[in-house]
Request: fold
Amino acid sequence: MDTIPHPARKPDNSPENPWIVDAVCANGAEEENFKPLTREEARQWRSSQPALSLRWLLMWQVLSALVLAVLAAWLTSDPVVVKSVLYGAAAVLLPSALMAWGVTSSAMARQVSGEAKASLVNFFVWEGIKLMLVLILLGLAPVVMDAVNWLALVAGLVVVLKVFGWVLYVQTKRRR
Reply:
């Protein structure tokens, strides 16, 4: 049985194929307008890009957790809610601090510095450790705490997680 081609879909060998950015790339030839950066141009580009300090990020995460805990105490006057907010924040902060140390200062990080592939593997190893620790801490919440307000715990966790995006946004806006 013959299939009817979709009217919006172009054949693969069509120069109008949306997946092929440039007709020069379609025939396998290298783009002529590509020019690699010189060492000086690369240095200038790197210096113009915002560098995110992990310590600064962790400080903002701690500050946001404390502000949320004070807000929760003011709104609810319930110590269980405040403890749950702080536990949810700690479930993100502690593994993030460990990951920051692991990626920047651990023996593994010092050993792989300067090697791109090994540094990427180091990052993913510490990211995996961080995720496992977050899940373990969340699983231990009912064991560690007498009573848990799960909504407050998740609120603390989400607020601290979202601080990363906010800090990155503010820092890039400030550099421009």
The chain has one domain: 51-175. The CA atoms of residues 102 and 129 lie 10 Å apart. The longest helix spans residues 116-144. Residues 51-175 form one domain.
